[in-house]
Every structure is written in C-alpha cells, then in structure tokens.
Amino acid sequence: MSNEIEAIKDPGLPAHVHRKADHDPEAAKRAERQVATMFGISALGTILLIVSYIFIPDDLFIFIPVMGDQNAHQLGLGLGMAISLFFIGMGAIHWAKTLMPDTEVVAQRHEFRSPDSDRKEFVEAVKAGAGAAGLGRRSLIKKSLGAALGLSALSPLLLLRDLGPLPKKELETTTWKAGTFLVTDPGNRRIKASDLEVGAVAQVLPEIEHPEHRKLSDIGKDAVLIIRLRPEEFNLEPDRLAMTHEGIIAFSKICSHMGCAVALYEQQTKHLLCPCHQSTFDVTRAAKVIFGPAARPLPQLDITVDGEGYLVARQPFSEPVGPSFWERNSQ
Amino acid sequence: MTAEARLGSVANYVDERTGAAAWMKKNLQKVFPDHWSFLLGEVALYSFIILLLSGTFLTFWFDPSQREVIYEGGYEPLEGLKMSAAYASTLHISFEVRGGLLMRQIHHWAALIFMAAIVAHLLRVFFTGAFRKPREGNWIIGVGLLTLGIVEGFLGYSLPDDLLSGTGIRIAEAIIQALPVVGSYLAYFAFGGAFPGEAFIPRIYTVHVLLLPGAFLALITAHLMLVWYQKHTQYPGPGRTEKNVVGYPLMPVYMAKAGGFFFIVFGVIAFLSAVASINPIWLYGPYTPGQISAGSQPDWYMGWLDGLVRMAPPLETHAFGHTISWNILIPGLIVPGILFTGMALYPFIESWITGDKREHHLLDRPRNAPNRTALGAMSLTFMIVALINGGNDIIATHFSLTINQIMWFTRFGIFILPPIAFVVTKRLCLSLQRADRELVLHGRETGRLLRLPHGEFVEVHEPISAEKAYLLTSHEQAAPLELPAVDGRGVKRAGAIRNKIRSRMSVANAEAVAKVSAEDLKEIDSH
C-alpha cells in the first residue's frame, strides 16, 4: 500500500533549545517573581469581589465609555471573579513554561491488538462459554428469552402513558362559538366596529365568564387578529368577503406553520409576517401564503356585529387553527 | 519537612492503602503532546465543569414551576404582571440574589462556549484524521456529546419561561406534533395536555439538571478514559512516529498547564459575563402564546436548524383526511438525522473507501487528505448557509436587505455553494501539496537577486532544513484500491455496483501531487 520509493530520512527530534531561566539564576528568579506577581493580582481580584459584594449597592449605576451605564455591583463582582481566576491560570502556566522542565519526553506506543495466542484463547473461551450455556443448541430458550426481553421493554413505555391525556378533538376546537363577543387583549372589553379606524390592527380573544382565569393553552388557540381595511381593498371570494364586517377582517393569530404568534403587520403592503420563520400572509387575499414555509393560509374567523354594534363571531372557526398534525383534515 | 518530602509521605500513605504505586508511577509520567489545537477539547471539558458549578448555584433559587403567580419583585416594569413561577424566580435570581445575574450570565456564556469548543474540537479531529482506527468509538461518543449538548442547551434556555424561550418551546411542540400518526399524542404526553400546559418546564428541568448531566458525565468519562488509554495523537514531524508519543510528562508540566488553563477559561467566561450581558429575560416579558418579540433567535448552535426550517418550501401533503407537514419534517428531523448519522459513521465510510485498516496515531495535515478536507469544507458551508438563514431577519435589518433576498439566496445556496466549496477546497489542497513539493525540491525563495556573468538575473533559493523537508514528505500517499470487476478466475464479482462506487471514490480519494522522494533530491543535487 505505501509507496516503494525511497522516502526522505527522519532527522530525529530537533536539538533542545534551553531557556534563559535554565542557566541564568537571575532569569529564574525573575520568572519566579513574575509568577508570584500574577498570583498576587489574583488575590487582589478576590478582594475586589468581596468589596463589591458587601459595599457596592446593587442599584448603583456608573458610566463606562463604550459600554454605557453599567451596574457597578454586578461589574465589580464579575471583574473581581474574572481577575481572581484568570491570574491563577496565568501564573500556573507561566510557572510551567519558564521554570518546570521543558525537555520533550518520548514514550513508546504499543499496538492495541493482543498477541495472537491471547486472541486465540480469548475466542476459545468465548466459544466454550457460549457452548456451556448451550446457546447454539437450545433455540427454544434463546427465542423465548428474546421475546421476553422485547416484551419487558413495553413496560416503561406503558408506564409513561399517564404523562398526559389523549388529544381527542382538542386540537381541532377553540373557545369561539357562534355569538362569542370579541374582547380586547389586554383589557377584556368588547369592541365596537366603529372604534376601529381604517388601517388599525388589534389582538382580540373570545369573551369568557372569568377572564382572570383564562388559560394560556386557550390563548394558544383562541388568539385572533382583527384588521380594518377599506372594503374595496379586499380581493376576496364572495363567501370570504361575507365573513368580514365593513372592512374588518379577522384571522387566527396562531401561525399555520409552527404556531408562533403572527404579530408583524405591515400597513403599507397589508402583509402579516410571522417573526419565527418569516411566513408572509396577504391580508387582502384571505391570508394567502405569499412567502415562507407555511403551507396553509391563516384560518379566517367569520365576524359580524350585534344589535348594539359590538363585534361578535358569527360562527366558530371552520378549520383547526395552528400548526398541522396527522389527524387534521386539510382538504 | 520540605514540600517534596511532605508530598512523598502523602504518596506513601496512598500506596499503603491502595497499592496504587505501580500504576501511578507509570501514569504520572504519561506523555502528552503539546499543540494549541489540543486545547479545544479541554475548553469544552472546563466549560462543562463551570456549567455544573454555576448550574448548581442557580438551582438553589430557581423554581421550575409553571404555576401562575403575580410578580411582586423589584423590577418595576413587570410589577403586578401574571407570570409563571419559573419566570418570576429567574427575575429574582437576576435582581435580588447578589451575584445571581453574574452566575446566570456565566452559565449561559459557558453553555455557548461549551458548544463552540465542541464544534471546534470536532473540526480539529475531523480535518486531522484523528478519528481513524483505533479512535472510531471515541468519535461516536463525541458526536453523541455534541447532540446531547444541543438538546441540553435548548432545554436550558427554555427553563426561564420568558417570551423568547416560550416561543422556542412552541416550535419544538410543533415539530413533535408534525410527526405522522403519533404526533399529536406525543405532544399531549410531553406537555401533559394542550400546549403550553403546566407540566413541561418541571419535566425538562429534571432532564436538564439530572438526566442529561448524568449522561454527559458518563460519556465524558468514557471519552477521556479512551484518550488516556489510547494515548493522544500527535502531529507529524521529525522524531515523531506511529510508534511513539512526544510531549511533556503529566506531572508536573501538563498538570500545571491544564490546571492553569481551567482557571483561564473560567476567568475569561467570568469576564465576558461581567461586561457582555446576554439573554436579558426581563426585557422579553413572561411567555404567552398570543405574543412574540420581533427578531426571535435561538442560541447559535440551534441557528442552523432554525435556518433550515425557515428556508423550507411550503410543502404539505393533504390526503385521506390526514396532513403531513414536509415543511417541518424535512428540515426539522430528516435532514438533521441524515447529517448526524453520516457524521457518526464517517470513520467507517472513509476506511471503506481507502481500505485502510491500520492504526493511526500521527495526524494528517489537512492538505494531504484533500478529499476529506473538501468534504469537511462542504459540510461546513452547508451549515453556514443554514445558519445565515437562521439569522435572516437580523441580517436583513443590519445590511438593509429584504428577508426575501436572503431567503432566496440561501434556498439556492444550500444546494449550490457546498459542492463549490468541495471543488475549491480540493484544488486548494492539491495546490498546497504542489507548493510543498516545490519548496522541498527548490528550497525557499530568499528574495535575493543574482546577476549572472552573461547578464541573466536569477533569484537565489536556499535549501530548507532537513527537519522541514522531512515534515513535508513524511505523509503517506496511498494508491487507489484495485477492485477489478472480475476476480482471478474471470468470474464477475458480487456487488458490482458497490464495487464500482467504492473504486471510483477510492480513485478520487487518492488524487495527490506526488511527494518528493530521496531520489528526486539526489537527482537535483547532481545537476
């Protein structure tokens, strides 16, 4: 495998070059002082840490060029700790490099492979052991042991079953019902259509009886964005247009890609952008995906107003909100 | 009693109780080769120790619970807000526990540096061929540590339950939920019900502080024991062979240097933590699924994964009442799975291509293994393109580009740039080999011009030292495998396609600029 041409000869390890401290006691003394100085600086660092901990109040801010206003307490603690640790290390390494022996040592390696006789005996021993247990002959034992081991692995899986409930239809439903009022988030106040100017955008939630007990897991499905455009700006199918009210359109705020909150609305382009993976939805075309990894538009909520002019859902969402899952019927 | 005598009596005490003298005398003299690139793994090890220390400190105050509380701590902007106990206790550590913020910063910085050091160490091991026999097992342990590190880091920065980290958990939940057939069940089991629930943070806390650190300790111990037992690799050079190891003895030089280096790493991390604040969770606010902050970024070692997910095309299959999210499964699970499996198996793939089953203790200079180096550059380019896309929003705002431009650049770049990197790197390696050959044959250019009697100008070249000449020519140049399609008796061999692939890869792998032999030099001398 290796080349048969004659290689250039190995001249062997280069000659050792002595350091100044090896033959000059003055230099050795100086190196010793340098090491001691570094350990001394480390001690000063620890003192800085102690002083900062006890005496600098934790609400004192000082101005430091480039860094701006800094909390003096934190800075003192951190710098003290950094100095105390760093200079222990520097001292130790300087000590090793200047005063400890620096001649390189050669040790021999040995091949890991054992002598052939040992290997042979090892193989024999394995074979003899396996033979004594009858692994080769008693196939009934082997098979039943395999089956038992395999089955026993089920028990930890089974025991983990109670980690959580079954999803049932929960991923497909939200709190929104026909007639649920839209309320502000935060604030939990009903919204009049007339409160919303053209170009405005607001996050809303469904009205519930005890808003102070609203669960995060519900917000994760219920959050809705309402946006008001001029009705002529829409480019919608008639059935979708019927789901808007005087230019107010409502979409699930939960991204159809991976569930982040689609919170960035560009008023100029009327695009909604998800900050997580930049899926971009066109509000004028029923949140159609115009860029990014999302494969489905944001579900649209059918809204109208009640007799007093408050915004209200006409129907629940007609499809599951949020990211896809196996059971989702997306056709 | 002098210090030496005292230490001697300690050694005596230990041996009389353990009989360790025979083992210790040998191993205290154990030789470690010296090179800056061997420090990268050490940085990872020391960062891990720092993580254990600072992490333990944080557990004394952190409350891993998603129970809802009203914040009444010292940070006014969040006063009276509803939040989880986890977030409130992280605020408490940051503002009321003296040194708490410093420890949080040290823990987070150490995690970032831990991962960076692992990656740098992995690149060193890869590009120098240190993973070859007998160290394939240790390579696999290393890949395992890298994978666990990514998971552990993600779980760690998810614990504070702030708006940014909660968004990260939301994405992780969407990946679980996207698994065909079992996805929504697994998600409900993991979260104890609907996302976010109240079970997830306490659960990942146990994994983060107990299960994974335990796995780390076990794997790191095995990793180091193998290094110890197999002895460290060394760079080639005069006097260094496959049969020896040249360096400094453990006691005292290596102990002092390694021990000192631990303090330096700790000191640098403490310094960074003191002056460069990261993850200011109090600015993000508590997590709620209806809100988000712009410019959401994961930590850097997750960035490539996020970048892949961002660049995925909007692909879903809708059929028979079911949905399969290829836009999540491919970038989130399938591609990373292929990458990491390929990485773990690489030592075996390379030895299959070269047919080399011998032990290797001398490292390769990357240029002398052009194919491997090119493959490394290709993988790195892939990762960097993905990472760029992971920060596309930040890059867009900093360089006045649109997100769309960056996204389209990376969508094409991820396919086009890695192969280009492969070709360019391979050519560069071969050129460097050629330069080495020139140097050995014709010596060093001195820059001195000489005018010959007939008027010609020539530059004087000086021969290089014997040591350098040896270094530049000591590598092996193996011929490609000979895998004829028919065997000795004229019968077609089984697995013809496999053989053909192996043969072609072996030929590509053996491409090299012939190194200088002793004959070449003699010939030049005789001119």
What can you tell me about this protein's structure?
The complex is a heterodimer of chains A (331) and B (527). Among the domains of chain A are: 20-98; 171-313, Rieske [2Fe-2S] iron-sulphur domain (Rieske Iron-sulfur Protein). Helix content of chain A is 34%, strand content 16%. Chain A contains eight helices and 14 strands. In chain A, a hairpin with a 5-residue loop joins strand 13 and strand 14. In chain A, helix 2 runs antiparallel to helix 3. The two termini of chain A are 62 Å apart. The mean pLDDT of chain A is 91. Chain B has helices at residues 3-18, 21-28, 39-59, 85-95, 100-127, 136-158, 163-178, 183-191, 200-230, 250-275, 281-284, 300-311, 326-354, 370-390, 392-399, 403-442, 466-473, 496-510, 518-526; strands at 31-32, 68-70, 82-84, 244-249, 316-319, 322-325, 444-451, 457-462. The longest helix of chain B is centred in the C-terminal third of the chain and has 40 residues, at 403-442. Chain B folds into two domains: 31-362, Cytochrome Bc1 Complex, Chain C (Up-down Bundle); 425-448 and 457-526, no CATH class. The radius of gyration of chain B is 28 Å and the shape is globular.
